[in-house]
UniProtKB/TrEMBL annotation:
Taxonomic lineage of the native organism: Eukaryota, Sar, Stramenopiles, Oomycota, Saprolegniomycetes
Protein name according to UniProt: Peptidase C1A papain C-terminal domain-containing protein
Source organism superkingdom: Eukaryota
Transmembrane regions listed in the UniProt entry: 21-41
Keywords: Membrane, Transmembrane, Transmembrane helix
Keyword Transmembrane helix: yes
């Protein structure tokens, strides 16, 4: 009882003090908490900055790792890209994505190691041969299972066949990559015993990791600083036209008694008609998730929505705005095509000039795109709208006269959103990322050729290139400049 009485008296005294000093005490506590939070935020930003800046240093290997070898999630940078990634290459129409992924990882590993050792300049890289690597894998896997083809390989073959491949990666100059199917074995230079015996490229694969979820992929990417090949199931999508408006008003496939039901993305109609000649190829360079996905490969990279749309300024309207010098200059400044040529005469007239006018969303990722049609023979023009089409179909209807090549040193890569990974993996599985612990022998580098006179470095030297990097990121319009500083425009 006494103890309880004391507690009550202490409690009573505390609440008696609070009305007198409560507000100053609360203010003091708030100030202390704000100071603690400020210190913590400063430390977090400082650690993150130090982490990103020191990934290539030995200290990074111990500073931010737990005892189990992982990285504390809170210390991961919000954005991260590995260094020394070599320029993209085009696999064309062959099923050699696994080949290119493997070679890309090996090129980055080789370059990273060479720069760290001082055997390569930071802007130098050596390009390896995908053609030769595919042949070497087939040599090790002859038999009916491979059908004498590089179709359908896997990135992990680098690990499982590493004893046979450790001296079987060749510089790209050994033979050209054949872009058309049916030429998987084409590389006569590999028949030369001297080329094989004198090849200086040599490596060992000490370990391979396989990761399936976002967290472990991010951890390994930041921890290793190495490029990691991505393997995923590609999907195709059957896009649909909704049975609304005049476009399909008389189509028997829109009969409610027998029609195909629309997917969830098209709630405005009950009946839908499948779009013709589409394979779900995406035009923006990324892979998108869709309720109608089916397992299949392939994607496209032509983007008709990048065509320049003239605006009606300076009193110029309609076709006059398209033909004005300002439109020509502004299209060139923005590196966008202005003049379009007819490719599919089912929708346009060859020999006439077309200018993009506008577009309206329609149906399932489809668009109604309109143009100005100009006849240079009699200088007449008219308004033309295509029926609802996917972007890829629009790109096959017209082609641009002006083509602005991307920077091949820096551009050309795809991106794969994590949301898409999650949805595709849940439906079809087949997604994983590999990491390889590769050790390159000193003989592999041109800088060490004097130590290995029995090896031939001519192919390595011929396959050594430089890759420039931008001095700074200047936003999405790096070529922009003042065109008419005294005249306000809406461009």
């Amino acid at each position: 009882m006494r103890s309880a009485s004391v507690e009550r008296r202490q409690s009573t005294k505390w609440w008696w003090v609070m009305p007198m000093y409560g507000f100053p005490v609360l203010m003091l506590l708030n100030m202390v908490m704000l100071a603690v939070l400020a210190v913590q935020l400063h430390r977090s930003n400082s650690l993150q900055s130090r982490f990103a800046d020191s990934m290539d240093t030995p200290a990074a290997a111990t500073m931010y790792h737990t005892r189990g070898g992982g990285i504390i999630a809170a210390l991961l940078p919000i954005k991260f890209a590995v260094d020394h990634v070599t320029p993209y290459k085009d696999q064309a129409r062959r099923g050699t994505c696994w080949d290119f992924s493997t070679i890309g990882a090996l090129e980055q590993s080789y370059r990273k190691h060479g720069v760290a050792k001082g055997w390569l300049d930071s802007n130098e890289y050596v390009s390896f041969s995908e053609q030769a690597y595919g042949i070497e894998v087939m040599e090790l896997c002859t038999g009916p299972v491979w059908r004498n083809s590089t179709e359908g390989g896997e990135v992990p073959l680098l690990y499982y066949l590493h004893k046979g491949l450790k001296e079987s990666v060749f510089p790209t100059r050994v033979c050209p990559y054949t872009s058309s199917p049916g030429h998987d074995w084409d590389c006569r230079e590999l028949d030369d015993a001297f080329v094989r015996k004198s090849n200086p490229l040599s490596f060992t694969v000490n370990d391979m990791g396989t990761f399936y979820d976002q967290a472990s992929i991010k951890h390994k990417l930041v921890q290793s600083g190495l490029a990691m090949p991505v393997s995923t199931t590609l999907v195709s999508v059957q896009h649909m036209y909704p049975c609304v408006g005049k476009f399909l008003s008389n189509d028997p496939r829109c009969d409610a008694a027998t029609c195909q039901l629309c997917p969830p993305e098209l709630p405005m109609a009950t009946c839908c008609v499948p779009a013709d000649s589409t394979h779900g190829q995406n035009m923006d360079g990324e892979f998108l998730a869709h309720s109608g996905m089916q397992v299949e490969g392939g994607h496209g990279m032509v983007h008709p929505f990048n065509w320049y749309v003239p605006t009606q300024d300076d009193g110029l309207v309609d076709i006059a705005a398209c033909l004005s010098d300002d439109s020509v200059q502004y299209a060139a400044l923005n590196r966008q095509p202005l003049h379009l040529t007819c490719v599919d005469d089912a929708y346009c007239v060859p020999g006439r000039v077309y200018f993009a006018k506008n577009r309206t969303s329609y149906g399932d990722r489809m668009h109604v795109m309109c143009f100005w049609e100009y006849d240079p023979t009699d200088k007449s023009s008219k308004h033309l709208c295509l029926p609802p089409m996917l972007q890829e179909t629009i790109a096959r209807t017209f082609e641009p006269d002006e083509v602005y090549e991307n920077d091949s040193d820096l551009c050309g890569f795809y991106f794969l959103p994590y949301d898409t990974i999650s949805q595709v993996s849940a439906l079809f599985q087949g997604f994983f990322v590999n990491s390889f612990d590769v050790k390159w022998a000193p003989q592999s580098y041109l800088a060490n050729r004097e130590k290995f006179p029995h090896l031939n470095y001519s192919l390595v030297q011929a396959s050594t290139f430089t890759q420039h990097s931008p001095s700074r990121f200047d936003g999405p319009f790096p070529f922009a400049h003042k065109y008419k500083p005294m005249h306000r425009r809406r461009h």
